[in-house]
Specification:
The complex is a heterodimer of chains A (about 280) and B (about 525). Chain A contains twelve helices and two strands. With about 280 residues, chain A is an all-alpha fold. Chain A has one domain: MetI-like (MetI-like fold), CATH 1.10.3720.10. Chain A has a two-stranded antiparallel ribbon. In chain A, a hairpin with a 5-residue loop joins strand 1 and strand 2. In chain A, helix 4 packs antiparallel against helix 5 and helix 4 packs parallel to helix 12. Chain A is elongated, with a radius of gyration of 22 Å. With about 525 residues, chain B is an alpha/beta fold. Chain B has a domain of about 240 residues: 3-Layer(aba) Sandwich (Rossmann fold). Chain B is about 35% helix and about 25% strand. Chain B has a six-stranded mixed beta sheet, sandwiched between helices. In chain B, strands 16-17-18-13-19-20 form a six-stranded mixed beta sheet, with helices on both faces. In chain B, strands 2-1-4-5 form a four-stranded antiparallel beta sheet, covered by helices on one side. In chain B, helix 4 packs across helix 5 and helix 15 packs across helix 16. The two termini of chain B are about 15 Å apart.
């Protein structure tokens, strides 16, 4: 086990990217224990960073215009981002993998129809698609997930389809066919496990994009309804006073970028490792 | 074949105590260890070894292109007194092509698909000489003529994909010889070619040596080729040269045990002793099978019968249709016409669930031992799954998998390992066990031993033979190699361009071939008469 994990931990990109990602994950998971204040409680309006709080403690990153502690809101906001980006990305993957495997393995009409649909969806600019979907069906956690699935699944579909077409030509898949193995099992047991390398890389990247998307939706006022702490919404609310009180905007922006950066580094590192492994084999 | 000792000339290339280190954590410390040899003008020195023997690293070191991660630890490579191991990259660039040239295994990938053959050969003169355009073109044409290529003008204007594999390899040889190098390194130059083409290319290389006086270092795994072409032979194993001597010495009185074992493992062209009259019931009957790929007829009126307990070999070169035949027989493709019956079941008429159920009757062992096993599953899981698909219960399937591992000569502990933990020969044994787990009536072996080293090949052939006798299987053995077919077949079917040109008992086909194409195949088998 240690030998299996070791190359991942000693790879600099994976180590740094993983550490940043893990940090946000831990903050999200243990938010009630780690946040110094209640994220919804008014303490002192528009306090600058490092201001001592009236009831004791320090407002490390200051407060927003409603007097809520920004650090605590960022920590709680991590919950929203981590939870919804993960759920949304996983759902998009479930759909993309199911359709991609079917199209890539069965080919023919199934493939033609699914590929056509995917191309139609992919021809829209992603952000416009999100906005249209959210405006039409309304902003709620479920709808945000649906919007992400609808706009990401076609891209995942394409990757899975291409990988499937390649793997399906390998002899061991032919062997399974000559043994009378059913299509579903061939897709799930013989093809999918052999596609996990590239998919893991794409998953990390896509998780980052989804986090940004959720932030963008919040910034556009299409995010989760207030007062739920949400990074994008925080930037949106602070932008009017950003000149006078830059801390309102800077810290949420750093939060979003750091998570995105962490996931991208992780993806790059995994890619390098899997390529190195491919060469070694 | 000439067996004279090297002429009294001084060596043009001397390798002296060359040691190339492998990266830490490899299965041995050195890719090449203390290798020493001399190459004289006007001789072909064959370096023979199985995979992993270090022969390719040795040749790469000579070109100053040791693969990444490897490093020359000690030793000298002297080209007419100049040490290549110490030469700078700039000096090497000048030396490569002019003094020392290389021919690779894959002619198609050694040529640039975007340039015509003529442009590519001419490029050698542009890079290394000051010749005027007119002179360059004349030299290029002369080279192509010397390669005995038909219609030189058409060849020069062709792109690589418009030529056959053998023609491409001649072009590669022409490029290597363009600047009249003193040393030519040929790394498995005929391995990717069909036997009849191989025979022509080998003849060409021999002629070139006589006419130009190059020293040729010929790297190969094939003792048959060695017997055809070598003046001297160096045998490598595990990075060391274990034996070096004149061809006659090494082939007829090998001093090292390993050399003896290698020579003994080369399959002979003598057919297997005929067995009792074949009267068992047919398990596979193919009648008037046809298949078209677009307009090309890949299979044309193929009929043959395989009886229980019998081995029928299909022998042919690339493009003969033998693999298409195998794929049609196991229904990986649906042939366009004809009939196939497996144990009395009309196999081509089956569809959907009915086909899936009957598939167990006919199983295949694939060529590539790496590609035919799912890298993510354990060996035991794969074999047991096959047993379950043929109707066994879970407990029975596990027991059958364990028994089969034992039967194909693998340890019990193999059950829980993944394919990566096994060598090529062992993986092929796993593939055989997996096919047998379905209790098939017919086993198709599609080039099942061609990717294996010759010593391993002999073992796997022996295994197939013993299994066929023990289980009374019908085996359809597909191969390009007449020697291998001779070892195992009761009957041999020779295919050429989608047709059967000759079929009959093995001894009749091998010893008294009726068809001209069969005769040319037998004549082209490398090392005929010497091994």
């Amino acid at each position: 086990m240690i030998r299996l994990v070791r190359p991942y931990l000693t790879h600099p990109l994976v180590a740094v990217g993983g550490a940043v990602t893990l940090l946000w994950l831990v903050l999200a998971l243990f938010a009630p224990l780690l946040a110094p204040f209640d994220p919804l409680k008014t303490i002192l309006p528009l306090a600058r960073p490092l201001t001592p709080a009236p009831g004791g403690g320090t407002l490390w990153l200051g407060t927003d215009m409603l007097g809520r502690d920004i650090l605590s809101r960022l920590i709680y906001g991590a919950r929203t981002v981590v939870l919804y980006s993960t759920l949304a990305t996983l759902s998009a993957y479930a759909v993309g993998i199911a359709l991609g495997l079917s199209a890539g393995y069965l080919r023919g009409r199934v493939d033609a129809a699914l590929s056509f649909l995917a191309n139609v969806v992919l021809s829209f600019p992603v952000l416009v698609l999100y906005i249209v979907i959210i405006v039409v069906i309304g902003a709620s956690p479920l709808n945000i997930i649906l919007a992400v699935v609808f706009s990401s699944a076609p891209a995942i579909f394409r990757i899975v389809r291409a990988l499937t077409i390649d793997i399906a030509t390998r002899d061991f898949v032919q062997v399974a066919r000559t043994q009378g193995e059913g299509s579903l099992r061939i897709m799930l047991v013989d093809i999918l496990p052999n596609a996990t390398g590239p998919l893991a890389v794409d998953f990390c990247l896509r998780l980052g994009y989804t986090a940004i998307t959720i932030g963008t939706l919040g910034f556009l006022g299409l995010g989760l309804p207030p007062p739920t702490p949400d990074w994008g919404t925080m930037v949106n609310e602070g932008k009017a006073m950003a000149i006078a009180f830059p801390h309102l905007v800077i810290f949420p922006c750093i939060a979003i970028s750091s998570l995105m950066l962490g996931l991208s580094l992780l993806a790059d590192g995994l890619k390098e490792l899997s390529e190195a492994k491919g060469r070694g084999a | 074949m000439t067996t004279q000792t090297p002429s009294s000339d001084t060596a043009i290339l001397t390798i002296d105590g060359l040691t190339v280190a492998l990266p830490r954590g490899a299965d041995r410390r050195h890719a090449v260890k203390g290798a020493s040899l001399d190459l004289f003008p006007r001789e072909i020195l064959c370096v023979v070894g199985e995979s992993g023997s270090g022969k390719s690293v040795l040749s790469a070191a000579l070109m100053g292109a040791v693969p990444k991660g490897l490093a020359i630890e000690s030793g000298r490579i002297l080209l007419q007194g100049k040490d290549l191991a110490l030469a700078s990259e700039r000096e090497l660039t000048r030396i490569r092509g002019r003094d020392i040239a290389m021919i690779f295994q894959e002619p198609m990938s050694a040529l640039n698909p975007a340039l015509t053959v003529g442009e590519q050969i001419e490029e050698m003169f542009v890079l290394h000489t000051d010749l005027a355009a007119e002179a360059r073109r004349a030299r290029t044409r002369a080279l192509v003529e010397a390669m005995h290529l038909p219609d030189p003008d058409r060849i020069l204007a062709s792109y690589p994909h418009e030529l056959s594999g053998g023609q491409c390899q001649r072009v590669v040889i022409a490029m290597a010889l363009a600047l009249d190098p003193k040393v030519l390194i040929a790394d498995e130059p005929t391995t990717a070619l069909d036997v009849t083409t191989q025979a022509q290319v080998l003849k060409l290389i021999r002629e070139l040596k006589d006419s130009h006086g190059h020293g040729i270092l010929f790297i190969t795994h094939d003792f048959g080729v060695v017997a055809d072409i070598a003046d001297r032979i160096a045998v490598m194993r595990g990075g060391e040269i274990v034996e070096i001597g004149t061809a006659q010495q090494v082939l007829t009185q090998p001093a090292h045990d390993y050399t003896r074992a290698l020579i003994a493992a080369v399959p002979s062209l003598t057919p297997r002793a005929p067995r009792a009259a074949r009267t068992a019931e047919p398990v596979l009957e193919i009648s008037n099978l046809e298949h078209h790929y677009g307009r090309t007829k890949a299979l044309n009126d193929i009929s043959l019968t395989l009886r229980r307990g019998e081995v029928v070999s299909i022998v042919g070169e690339s493009g003969s249709g033998k693999s298409t035949l195998a794929k049609a027989a196991i229904r990986l493709i649906d042939p366009t016409g004809g009939a196939i019956s497996v144990s009395g079941t009309p196999f081509l008429a089956l569809k959907g669930g009915a086909l899936r159920q009957k598939r167990r009757l006919i199983q295949m062992v694939f060529q590539d031992p790496v590609g035919s096993l799912n890298p993510r599953r354990t060996v035991g899981e794969m074999i047991a799954r096959a047993a379950i698909l043929s109707g066994a219960s879970r407990a029975e399937a596990i027991r059958r998998a364990e028994d089969l591992l034992d039967l194909v000569g693998l340890q019990k502990s193999a059950y829980h390992r993944r394919p990566a933990a096994f060598s090529g020969g062992q993986r092929q044994r796993v593939g055989i066990a997996r096919a047998l787990a379905m209790h098939p009536e017919v086993l198709i072996a599609d080039e099942s031993v061609s990717a294996l080293d010759v010593s391993v090949q002999a073992q796997v052939l022996e295994l197939l033979k013993s299994l066929q006798e023990k289980l009374n299987l019908g085996i359809l053995f597909i191969t390009h190699d007449l020697r291998v077919a001779a070892q195992i077949s009761d009957e041999i079917v020779v295919m050429h361009k989608g047709r059967i040109v000759e079929k009959g008992p093995a001894e009749a086909v091998l010893l008294a071939p009726k068809d001209a194409y069969t005769r040319s195949l037998i004549d082209a088998a490398p090392g005929r008469g010497s091994i």
